[in-house]
Amino acid sequence: MFQTSLCITPPNPPQSIALGKHKVFIGMAPGVGKTYRMLEEAQQLKQEGFDVVIGILETHGRADTAEKAVGLEQVPLKQINWLFRTLTELDTSAVLARCPQLVLVDELAHTNIPGSERQKRYQDVFWILEAGIDVYSTINIQHLESLNDLVHKISGVVVRERVPDRLLDEADEVIVVDVTPETLQERLQEGKIYASAKIDRALHNFFQRRNLVALRELALRFVADNIEDNGRQSHSQSYCNIQERVLVCVSTYPSSIRLLRRGARIANQMNGRLSVLFVAHPHQFLSKSEALHIETCKRMCQEFEGEFLRVESDDVVTAILDTAVEQHITQIVLGETRRSRWQLLIKGSIVQRLMRGLPQVDLHIIGTDH
User: Fold this and answer.
1) Which residues share a beta bridge with 25?
2) Which long-range contacts (CB under 8 A, 24 or more apart) does 181-184 make?
3) b/e for 274-300, b at 16 or more Cβ within 10 A?
4) pLDDT at residue 228 in the model
5) Considering the entire predicted model, what is its pTM?
C-alpha cells in the first residue's frame, strides 16, 4: 500500500483523490475506538520502518488514546487567532513540507476555524493525497451527507458537520470499527467518552440503546453496500451480491397489492432492498381506475421504503429481464400467469423465459384470485 513519497504541492484545489492512498476508519458513534485503532496500525507501521506522522489528533481527554500516540511525530499545528482566542488547526502546508509516507488526520468532518485556507478538514485531506502522501483518517457514519435525514429520523439529532459520500467511494480502504451498543454505553458510563457532566444527558439522548442499534446497522450496511458496488465494478460478470434485492412486478390487476405486500415482507425478512416494477405499454393508455391503482402501488412502495420503477415497453418479459440485470436483482416476485393454454403455446411461459434469462435469480410465483 505504501511507497516512497514524492511530494508535489498541487497548484489548484484538487477535484478528486489521485495519488496518495486513503484509509478511512468509520464507526457508528463517538467512542467506538476509531482513533485508537488508527493509532495502533500507525504504531505497527512505524515499527516496520514506515515514515508516519500525526497531522492532527483529537483525543478528547481520553488517556488511553493519548498514550497510544506516544512515540509518533506530531507535525506542528497551525495557530489561528479567532474571537480573541488562539486556536489550532491541521497545517496542510507543514505536512506537505514534511513529506512523510503516511499522515494521520482525525475527525474528517471537522469544520475548520474561519480564516483557514479551506473550510473543511476533508478538503485538506484531498490536498495531502494529491501530493502523493498516504492518509489514515476517522469519521462517524452520521456525518455522511446522504445519511443526514435518516440519522435525524433515528436519533432526532441534526448533524451539521457533514462530508460528501464520495470520500468513502474514493477511499482505497474502509475499516468499520465496531462494538456492541452495550459496550459503548458502558464506556460512556465509565467516563471514557465524555466528561462526567455530559454522561446522563448523552445516555438519554444520542446514546440510547435503540439509537445505537440502528446506527450500528446503518454503518455496517452502508459499508457493505460500498464494498459490493466496488466489487461489482471490478468483477461485473462474476460478482455475487452481498445484499438481497427484491423486485416485485405489478400490473393493473388488483392482485398486485397482494404481491407488493408479499415482496415487502420478503425484503424485510432478508434485510434487503425493495424495488417495484410496472411495465407500461407505450401505445396503450390506462383508464382512470387503472391509473389510480398504479398510483396506489407507488404510494405503498414508498411506505415500504422501496424504489418504484415505471418502464415503457411492449415486451413485459424483456423489460423485467433488463430491469433485473440493471438493478442487480436477486429475488423476483410475480403473480401466476393469466395466459390461456393457447397463449402459452404460442408465446411461451413468462416464468420459463425469466428462468432462462436470469438463472441466478430466485423467482417467487404468488397465487392470485381470478
Assistant:
1) 138, 175
2) 181/209, 181/212, 181/213, 181/216, 182/209, 184/28, 184/29, 184/31, 184/32, 184/212
3) bbbbbbbeeeeeeeeeeeebbeebbeb
4) 53
5) 0.64
pLDDT of amino acid 367: 72
pLDDT tens per residue, range 324-342: 999 889 999 988 765 545 4
112-138 pLDDT, tens digit each: 999 889 999 999 999 999 999 999 999
With CA atoms as reference, report the closest residue to 123 among 4, 199, 222, 16.
Answer: 16
How many CB atoms are closer than 10 A to CB 93? 14
Pairing of strands 78-82, 85-89: antiparallel
pLDDT < 70 regions, the chain: 1-18, 225-242, 337-348, 368-370
In terms of Cβ atoms closer than 10 Å to its own Cβ (0-12, 13-18, 19+), residue 351 is middle
Q: What's the grid cell of residue 4?
A: 516512497
- Grid cell locating 179: 462494538
Q: Quick count: other Cβ atoms within 10 Å of Cβ 118?
A: 16
The residues near 116 (Cβ < 8 Å, ≥ 6 apart) are 78, 80, 89
Domains plus CATH for the chain? 22-234 (3.40.50.300), 245-366 (3.40.50.620)
Please tell me the distance from the alpha carbon of residue 52 to that of residue 90, in angstroms, as a whole number: 16
